[in-house]
Amino acid sequence: MDTHNLPLARPQKELEAAGKKLKELQDDLAAVQFTPHSKNGKLLMAKCRTLQDENAEIGREASEGKVSGQVHVFVDLVNV
Predict the structure, then answer these.
(1) Are 64 and 70 in contact (CB under 8 A)?
(2) Using one digit for the tens of pLDDT, what is the confidence trace for 21-41?
(3) Which of 33, 40, 41, 67 could serve as a FRET partner for 51 with CA atoms 20 to 30 Å apart?
(4) Neighbour-count burial of 26, counting CB atoms closer than 10 A to its CB (0-12 exposed, 13-18 middle, 19+ buried)
(5) How many CB atoms lie within 10 A of CB 49?
C-alpha cells in the first residue's frame, strides 16, 4: 500500500461524492425548470387552457343549477 497517497484518499472520495451530488442537483433543477416555449411547457400551457375552459363551463352550469349531481359523482370518484 502506498502510504504517500493515503492522506489524499479521503478528500478525493469526498470530492467525487460532491461532484456526483452537484450533477444530480443540476439534473433535478433542469427537470423542474418551466419555460412556456419548451415542448413540455407548451403541452402544460395547453392543458391549463383546457382545464380553465372546463372550469368556466362547470361554473356556468353550476350557476344554472345543472351540475349538482355531477359534482357529487366527481367528489365520490376523487375520494375513492
Answers:
(1) no
(2) 999 999 888 777 778 788 878
(3) 33
(4) exposed
(5) 10
Calpha distance 80→77 (Å, rounded): 5
Nine-digit cell at 50?
383546457
Instruction: Give the CA distances from residue 42 to residues 2, 29, 38, 52, 68, in Å, rounded to whole numbers and listed in that order.
Output: 57, 19, 6, 15, 33
pLDDT of residue 69: 55
**One-letter amino acid identity for 35?**
T
Contacts 24+ apart (CB under 8 A), 73-80: none
Give the pLDDT confidence of 36-58 residue by residue, as tens digits: 788 878 888 899 999 999 999 98
- For 11, half-sphere exposure in the C-beta direction (CA atoms, 13 angstrom radius) is 4
